[in-house]
Amino acid sequence: xxxxxxxxxxxxxxxxxxxxxxxxxxxxxxxxxxxxxxxxxxxxxxxxxxxxxxxxxxxxxxxxxxxxxxxxxx
Length: 74
Hints:
3 strands
């Protein structure tokens, strides 16, 4: 059985979620920049490598974990 760590403060979870999304976008070939904390409604600025397409992303992070994800023996 996998032991799940206790919850971290929500602000830290939110920042971790933003970095996770930015890392995943970067891994898939996008250029992702995390915005400052005071940018309303925008967490990540993302563009393609040619700079011909861009968009903004707002992240919502949850610390709830589905049991099936962690149960590898199932």
